[in-house]
Specification:
With about 525 residues, this protein is an alpha/beta fold. It has helices at about 1-5, 15-25, 30-35, 40-50, 50-60, 75-90, 100-110, 120-130, 140-165, 190-195, 260-275, 310, 320-340, 350-360, 365-375, 395-410, 415-420, 435-440, 465-480, 490-520, and strands at about 175-185, 210-215, 225-230, 245-250, 280-285, 300. It folds into four domains: about 35-60, no CATH class; about 70-150, Arc Repressor Mutant, subunit A (Orthogonal Bundle); about 170-380 and about 395-420, no CATH class; about 465-510, no CATH class. α2 packs across α5, α6 crosses α7 (about 100-110) and α19 (about 465-480) packs antiparallel against α20 (about 490-520). It has a six-stranded mixed beta sheet with strand order 4-3-2-1-5-6, sandwiched between helices. Helices cover about 50% and strands about 5% of the residues. The protein is built from 20 helices and six strands.
Length: about 525
């Protein structure tokens, strides 16, 4: 009895169970199969009874064939989401370490609404065992070699080979780069430290963020209309607004998605078709970019994975310059409020859109060219004009502006203007929304937030008539005439606005006279 009690119970992997079942299916007697594998007849009967269960597990790859137990994970939907992501990454031959899987699990758990989930080492080991994943340890030296050696080799290989072939048939005017960035559009200087490094995967802060897509060509002569993605599909501030300096879309997380990116691509393709142009578009391989529609006038070229920090022109100073201009405009607004002793109001989406677009259009062509040259995609001798360094901004005036606002708003001494500019650089701009949509039952995650959710309550602005607009231009012209050393370009821009308004009002009057004439007839 003692020996029987001490007998160790044997456990079989799914692979072993399948071999037992296959032996029976081959026509062997059950008694002979039991003796061959050293199991009792009752154990064999159990294997045959449960065969459909573990065959399904292995067929769906939800459990590795070496796994001995079929118990599901405690957070089964997180487990499925992480494994679906792992399969996608593995198919692309991308190196994945245990720490990367743990971070991804936390990310997906947050998206699925699990606040208490911990991607511990124990969870990682169980996840690995459940799916039969072998993770190789990568030492620090190997990591440095992969990032520095392999990364540099990949960049040099791309410069020497693929990019030359891609750009061979295109002029710099027809070579474009598109990329997205996240923006905490309501961020104030005194809150910079709290926002620094925040990935904003969802929750309340999703209401305070936007994702912006920018696209420009290598010659710096063309910047495309920005695409802004927010969380609210119909914010109050956009009510009765029919013209914006950008395209605006919305979804639940204010992220770029495959559908939104493909919609933008089709619009650009149609634009190039009308202009009888063919362009090369360079993009990274983020999740929103990996299932493209059929395009007639756009050839898409993918930048090498894990190399966009040194190869993507928009990442090499263009987007940073846009954020410098956007944040400096915010500082000017804050300073004006402080000087007039008015309460500081939060920026709404309409104001943010206007400032982001204005900042984008204000990025100098020379800055754009400099960043393309830095990426090594166009030669250094391309530019005909003197190229200033993209890093020359912010200038002394912006630093003085920051210093004044920082003192007035009690910004900590360790926070500088660059911290304020780069506070949202780590924001997630696209994610595995297709995976999450399959995990969240009964919830349409592609839908945008509600109309009023997270919206800043600002007083309703009265509608401005065209007569009032013309009067305002006249007052502005009168004000500028009292100023000293006003650039000619400012008067030129004012004349353009005046001409547009006068054309509108004249056409309205002409149309009304024709209508009156027809009525009298």
């Amino acid at each position: 009895m003692a020996n029987k009690g001490n007998k160790k119970r044997r456990q079989f992997s799914l692979e072993e169970k399948m071999k037992v079942v296959e032996a029976v299916d081959s026509g062997k007697r059950k008694g002979d199969v039991a003796k061959e594998f050293g199991i009792t007849p009752s154990t064999l009967s159990t294997f045959l009874k449960d065969r459909t269960k573990f065959e399904k597990k292995v067929r769906e790859a939800s459990v590795g064939p070496q796994r001995k137990r079929m118990r599901s994970a405690l957070y089964d939907d997180i487990d499925k989401a992480v494994f679906a992501w792992f399969q996608e990454i593995h198919a692309k031959n991308i190196l994945v370490t245990g720490s990367v899987i743990r971070k991804k699990a936390l990310n997906l758990a947050n998206m699925l609404g699990y606040d208490n989930f911990q991607a511990s080492v124990g969870w990682l080991n169980r996840f690995r065992d459940r799916h039969g994943i072998a993770l190789k340890a990568v030492c620090r030296e190997d990591t440095d070699r992969l990032m520095n050696g392999l990364g540099i080799d990949k960049v040099n290989e791309w410069h020497a080979g693929e990019i030359i072939k891609l750009i061979a048939d295109y002029s710099p005017d027809d070579i474009f780069n598109a990329d997205e960035t996240g923006v905490f559009f309501q961020l104030l200087p005194q809150h910079t430290l709290a926002a620094k490094g925040d990935h904003c995967r969802g929750g309340k802060k999703a209401k305070q963020r936007l994702t912006a897509l920018f696209c420009c060509n290598a010659s710096g002569t063309e910047k495309m209309r920005p695409l802004i993605v927010g969380r609210s599909a119909s914010p109050r501030c956009l009510k009765n607004i029919h013209s914006l300096p950008c395209d605006y879309r919305a979804n639940q997380w204010a992220w770029m998605t495959r559908d939104l990116f493909n919609e933008w691509l089709m619009q650009v393709d149609a634009k190039m078709k009308r202009a009888e142009r063919r362009i090369l578009l360079l993009i990274d391989n983020c999740s929103a970019h990996n299932m493209l529609p059929r395009l007639e006038r756009i050839q898409v070229g993918y930048l090498p994975s894990n190399c966009t920090a040194v190869l993507q022109p928009l990442n090499l100073g263009i987007i940073h310059t846009m954020k410098v201009l956007y944040r400096s405009h915010l500082l000017k607004q804050i300073l004006l409020k402080l000087s007039s002793r008015e309460d500081q109001e939060k920026v709404d989406i309409k104001q943010a859109i206007d400032m982001i677009a204005a900042a984008w259009w204000s990025v100098k062509p020379s800055t754009v060219v400099k960043c393309w040259q830095k990426a090594g995609i166009i030669p250094m001798e391309f530019a005909e004009c003197d190229i200033e360094s993209a890093a020359s901004e912010p200038d002394t005036a912006i630093e003085k502006l920051w210093h004044t606002v920082a003192i007035a708003t009690c910004v900590p001494n360790e926070v500088n203007f660059q911290d304020f500019v780069t506070a949202d650089d780590d924001l997630i701009i696209s994610q595995d929304t297709d995976i999450i949509q399959g995990m969240v039952a009964g919830e349409n995650t592609s839908e945008a937030g509600s109309e009023d959710e997270g919206e800043v309550s600002l007083p309703q602005q009265p509608k401005v008539t065209i007569t009032e607009a013309i009067s305002s231009v006249q007052k502005l012209r009168q004000f500028l005439s009292t100023c000293v050393d006003v650039p000619d370009a400012i008067f030129g821009q004012l004349n353009g606005i005046d001409e547009y308004l006068m054309k509108r009002v004249t056409q309205t009057l002409v149309d009304s006279k024709i209508t009156d004439f027809l009525q009298t007839k």
